[in-house]
Amino acid sequence: MHLDFHTPALPFTLGRHFEKKKFQKILKSARINSVTLTGRCHHGHIYYDTKLPAKHPQLANDFLMMEVDACHEVGIKAPIYLTVGWDAFSADRHPEWLERKPDGSLYGFDDYGQLSPGWKTLCFNTPYLDYLKYQIVDTMKHFGSKLDGLFFDIVWQDPCSCNYCIEKMLNLNLDPTNEKDRISFAKLTEQFLKDEISAIVKGESKDCPVFFNEGNILPSIRKNLSEYSHLEIESLPSGEWGYQHFPTTVRYAKNLGKEYVGMTGKFHKVWADFGSYKNKAALEYETFLALAHGAKCSIGDQMYPDGTLQLATYELIGSVYRQVEKLEKYNDGSQALTEIAIVHPGIIADSELKVDLSLAGAVNMLNEKHYQFDIVDQWMDWTKYKLIILPDKIIISEELKRKIQEYFEKTDGKILATYKSGLDAENRFLPDWGINYIGKNTFVPTYGKYHGLFENHLPNGELVLHGEGLLVSPQGAQVLGDEYRPLFQRNYQHYYSHFQAPVSENKENPVATSSDRVYYFSHPLFEMYKRQGVLQYKQMINLIVDVALGQTVLKTNMPSSGDIILNHNEERGELILNLLNYIPQRKAIELDTIEEVIPLYNVKIVLSVENISKQINIDIKKIKSVKAVQNNDEIEYRVKDNSLEFVVPEVKGYEIVTLKY
Predict the structure, then answer these.
(1) Strand duo 600-608 + 373-376: pairing
(2) Is the overall model pTM greater than 0.85, yes or no?
């Protein structure tokens, strides 16, 4: 678990009610085997006995050492948390160390005003970095061999315009008045910061586990990935992350070659929502989904300033972790069986949102149809996938051009691209697309009429396209859909009823095409689906996916609200099918939650024996058993026409089906 302890000055002795035996009993009863403890918090205070002036003013003993020793006595690991970017103690004493926006105002958490509460962000190009490194060494020397690892938080740099950054940018021939240069320099600073911290840590202990928390895991992590011992996916769905974040991020993180942990919180809202409790069903889903994706679990809480833990919180955590304890072995050490890869838009640019909208739409479309898929970058192997999806904004660099060419040469797989994906920096589509770029479509929205493989699957009429599209012309590609514009573009002089004008009779440029290897849509269907939720956008993508894959690894009658993740453990000779049905609801203005577990009955599963055997290079036609773990039931099955068919009688929240071969 992750135990915050961001504690300002107090009117009493810090940790005055801490009792070792009680602390140990609570953690053990909640089935916790590792707890990240706070060494230095966002207030800048230090919680162990140190000569540094930032030692908490009401610290009367070596509190953190007492916590670490208490954990170790009962076999619980205790890595230490150190804040990096937010430190109120340093910020108050050295305002010249703070990040500055171009107008001189401050970056920080929540409200950044001088007379408003909240942390201000420190700049790593200032002398603050020297203090940070000194404090890290101080922590490591103090705990010595007792140190189980370091968790560094708030490890990011904003596009800063402080005097130090301006000077360093000028020395690198970067223009401080140029926003792109400021963003680029900020990214360089982040990479430099991790290098500096990593060098300091390795200088003290070569084997100390390290994680740098940026609140997200994106392709930009690649520059420093070797400096991470593992990955922790901070993702509190009732906060800014939402229920979109974890199932998206984990599908990328699991392919980075590191052990990975899913971190949620016990809070109804977000960190430090004292006196609140996450609904048990929600906490189950968040931890079980991590297990299904092969991740470890972590739940966040915050200790009270008197050194006590809230009993009701640990009763809640224990009620979930006792289930996790029984279930975690099934997916541990397994590999996902996937046949589709979505290329992460973060290889082009970081999104300002926790999850890029195009990526979110693609994940939702595939997950709702229960396709098995990964999220990849250009450094991963694409050749093991039957279909590569380039969502909306994958501009083709020379590196990507070579990657696509390699994919076409080594496989007979297909590419599905939308909107700008496939264009190079000169607005030219790759030859394999079979289309030419004309320009931007000035009609937003517009309409499409689709034919060919879409016939009998879409409404027999025009379909509104709620997004800016491109104008393209076929250059060898087959046209699968045509644009029909509105009678006119809506503006203040000429508008029609409440929204867009009805469709005209004039056929324009293609809105969907196919070539030998590439399916293309001229509009950003993935972002449009995330924004609008139009069923037909998903249906069009699903039709292309089905055609491209032929026979899919898995088919089911499970509703789109569910999650299905298929894994393989070669050592145990076992397929592991994870089925989850938890439905987030928007019951509040600002957050989603899950209140009840709604059972599903008679979930039909059809697995392609042929496809799975090819993927794992093992003939699995002779299945020995199919078993529902939660219900402890043997499930009847049959192998027919290279397919394995069975019915799961009940899915009450989470069911694991193991298939021994």
Answers:
(1) unpaired
(2) yes
